[in-house]
Amino acid sequence: MRAVDIIMAKRDGRELSREELGFLINGFVAGTIPDYQVSAWAMAVFFRGMSPAETAALTETMLDSGGRMNLAGIPGPLVDKHSTGGVGDKTSLILAPLAASLGLRDPMMSGRALGHTGGTLDKLESIPGYRTALSPAEFREILARDGFAMTGQTRDTVPADRLLYALRDLSATVESVPLITASILSKKKAEGAEALVLDVKFGSGAFMRDPAEAEGLARSLADTGAALGLRIIALLTSMDQPLGSMVGNFLEVEECYACLDPARYSAPPRPGSPEHGLSADLMELTLELGARMLMLGGRAGSPEEGRKLCLGALAGGKPRDLFLGNIESQGGDRKRFLEMLGSYRSPHRAEIRAREDGYVSRIDARKVGQAGIVLGVGRNRREDPVSPVAGLQLHKKAGSPVRRGDSLMTVWGKDRESLEAAIPALEGAAEYAASPPSPEKLVIKEIRHG
Question: With the CA atoms of 200, 205, 210 and 212 taken in that order, what torsion angle do they form, in degrees rounded to the nearest 10?
């Protein structure tokens, strides 16, 4: 068997066998098949695609390239959530303690910021002392005690994915649906999850801007996950404007902690989404995802029942207590974290103000995310550092009335030069209209296997 024959077969549209995929992927991990041949294969997959059986075989091959978390003996249900990434997308930080408070266990293996999308690990590591590089034994211990644990991918966990992802980023094949599917599901299967809720995003701030393409990815994930024995629900959600009111590493942790405040849920909620100001969309999506996690875990029979359980748990305060307990479990300084709330910001600050009277019709998520890289929130390369104190706070979002000169957002840069460089893009991110825009749905569709 030769790598060049496998490349030619995929180039010509043939379905590859499990043996051929195993030869290629295992050779790549072992170093016997060079990067340039795997890059050529990835490009062939990008253009030719993969069948559902082929995608499942690739996922299993990647999964078998390394070790798996041994969660045997920890009572379930083990249910996780995964997002395809966006700007201000911080639901994991609320969902993990919320799910744990309702009897689920969430073994969450997360990633770092890359490009204009944020990373859960970078956000958590903005808390002083917080460790995301957990050993398998630590991960298991914290999961069993707290009901959730937050860790990153280790060198031994699906090494094929780590190597292939870096290659895809350099070979312009990141958007390949089969390769995305195998990447996500191999890691989620390796972490020990039994069921998975997927937040598949589309729009200006998502990797996939077109809803039809995002739906294709969601169906690929649901079908491949079912072939691997995972129970999956995927939600197709909009990412045209930043989610919530904060974009930045510590800023997003701070917003999530505020959303866990039981005082916000002590009064009976209004019909539809509870009132949370500019965090309303963040909580709306969190409740929709949390409800599906409870359904997959057998704790709720419908989205409506799941939402009600989530709101009751938030009002009781247990998710907030679990959030603070997890900070201590993973080495963080709980007291210092609470002292930093509202003040942990870069000294390099500016205001972005409305250019005209009327209504905000849009805050472009991609422009905000790209400006965030300049500010120091994100990274262009995996080895780039990120700043815990850079970011922005939105004071207006789509639908907000404004007068010329009103503050749209407060912005913090890692240094003065970064701040000044980001301002033009942020000024251009806001669009205006004479009348309020029609409300857009956040969750467009639910997708399951079959």
Answer: 10
